[in-house]
Amino acid sequence: MNQNFKKYMIFWLSQSVSQLGSAMTGFALILWVYSQKHSAMTVSLMSFCNYLPYVLVSLFAGVFVDTHKKKNIMLAADSAAACCTLFVLVLFGSGELRIGHIYFINCVIGLANAFQSPASSVAVGLLVPEDKLSNASGMVSFSGSLITVFAPVLAAFFYASGGMNHILVFDLASFAAAFLILVFVIRIPERPVSEKRTASFSEDCREGFRFLLGHRGIWMVIVTMAMLNFFSRLTYENILSPMILARSGGNQFALGLVNAAMGVGGVLGGILVSAGKTPRDCLKAIYVSAGLSFLLGDLIMGVGRDPVLWSFAGFMASFPIPFINAGQNVILYRLVPAQMQGRIFSVRNAIQFSTIPVGILAGGFLADYVFEPFMKGGSSVSDVLRLLTGSGSGSGMAVMFLCTGFLGSLFSFVFFRQKSVRTLKNLLDDH
């Protein structure tokens, strides 16, 4: 096995444990915030405060990443996040923690992630051989899915037993371990800049956009992924829990079963990708996988009326996601010059994630004020829709899943046939 890939596996494992600690803290804070106000919007604003600075700063962070050592950037960004956890620990222990503090902390973490994420992405390209990039992406998806399954369970267990402090301490300990491994074990090779840079900071920022606009295929992939993120945040990652609880009479076991099925789907997909089971056609891996995720995930979730069918839908929604991520990463690593990857990853993140806060807020609004009241009405359209989704509380949110399932799959399959996307396939074949 390549020595650098062995180092990457150590790096990936240490970062995954650290991310588990962060995810447990994040989930515990959601439980704490909800216990204070019992408001879904209060919880949604936590995500909003995290994503908004992330999106805004990502537009400029790439230039910094390209001109500074990726290892130092990751260490600084992770340290900032750890300081936020320490801040929460002190405030919680003294009984002074407030919801406003959580919003502020999420803004700081979003700011730090705007630098950490592209730096980490570029570091992967520097550590991992090109023929192992899809495997590395699969490993990330695999660990992310495991965290999705176990972080809420572990956090809820410790939180219910009065162990908020234990969660925060574990988060800090996992950060310390990952920090020390990155400092003393992982050496990230830096590609030196061959010529002195004379362009201004703003010109460097515009250079990333010009590169993407000059490569219409890559630009189209990024923009379409932003739209698919919007559809996803409208339903699956926003109103899934309220819908299942509403349609199951508040059955938390049913909700847990569906979340577990989604996690298992992501884990299995990640295992296949990390084992190298990705199609040779990266664009097919992206668009066909996305189309199937919406078609089999959202549509079945909308028409389902029991935990078994909901769990199957959750599995089918999450199983293709690692293939989407791997296909996109391989495209960027192959076609973007190494000295520009920080800028391109940052612009990619800013564009793709810009639709997430909009989708989060729009999904809650549409569920409460549009679709749920509409399905309680007596129009001929709602009568037809009730044949598909059933009636009662949560049926309006089920209709939203039908809408995202149809629109998301149609959007994916149509753009797969676009000329600029097919031209990108020819360019990839040449590489």
Structure description:
It is a single chain. By secondary structure, the protein is mainly alpha-helical. The chain has 2 domains: 1-185, MFS general substrate transporter like domains (Growth Hormone, Chain: A, Up-down Bundle); 200-431, Growth Hormone, Chain: A. Helices cover 83% and strands 0% of the residues. It contains 18 helices and no strands. It has helices at 3-37, 40-67, 70-94, 99-127, 133-160, 164-184, 201-214, 216-234, 240-247, 252-274, 282-303, 307-318, 321-335, 341-353, 355-376, 380-389, 395-416, 419-430. α2 packs antiparallel against α15 and α3 packs antiparallel against α4 (99-127). The longest helix has 35 residues, at 3-37. It is globular, with a radius of gyration of 22 Å.
Quick synopsis:
This protein is mainly alpha-helical. The protein contains 18 helices and no strands. The longest helix has 35 residues, at 3-37.
